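Why does residue order matter? Because the sequence determines the fold. Keep that principle in mind as you read this record.
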Amino acid sequence: MGMATSHTFGLGLRKPHYGDFLDGDAPVAVDFVEVISENFMVEGGRPLDVLRRVRERHPVALHGVSMSLGSADGLDADYLRRLRALVDAVEPLFVSDHLSWSRIGGFNSHDLLPLPYTLEALEVVCANIHRAQDALGRTMLIENPSSYLTLDGEMSEWAFLDQICARTGCDLLLDVNNIVVSAANHGFDALAYLAGIPAERVKQIHLAGHSQGRDLLIDTHDKPVPISVWSLYAQALERTGPVATMIERDDDIPPLADLLDELAMARQIAALPAWSLA
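Structure:
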């Protein structure tokens, strides 16, 4: 997947906005939409009909939440088969999932659990990414997680991401909000994180809001994008150049017009000259 030549801007497709995307006389003013892969990994029915109709108007990115790339017992073959069927049907702009694990044996936590950033874990993740990319017939984007605890490791998260890109040829989905959340929770420098990732591998960026918990920031996706995330986004664009930017909103979902206003802010930031972002 080559370098993008221009910025593109999209939104996550959520049920409250199905009518806006399906019934309007003109397509919604976005360059692409992103959907949660697992919601559409079914055989027929309304979900696939909705996705097919949206796909007629917009490119679609598939974003997974349960591939469990960090699972030591490998990936689920049936999951990969169903995802490949969806990929073949949609011909997506991107296919992505998280640097995390959620499954071991027959147990699925339905949460994105953190990894120790060790050489042993690196071998596991890279083997799983290789298998996924072979099964899907395409390069994946791997998303940096938000986290609330750290495990003993041998390298930083950004060094780990750099290594998996080098070893597997995967690309990155850079979640700027997750960097802000994890930097606040663990006390690392968000700019050092940006400096350490392979910027040429970033093909997509996520923007979102978060909430203040008792002691930690929580990646809730239930609020507008805050100033801290906009600021780091501007810094990220200095390194990445043109990318696909998307706003995530998964709870307390506002009218579509409000999200389009936020997307307009992303467009404005991306249009600024590089010198003005310094």
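Residues 8 and 244 are 5 Å apart (CA to CA).
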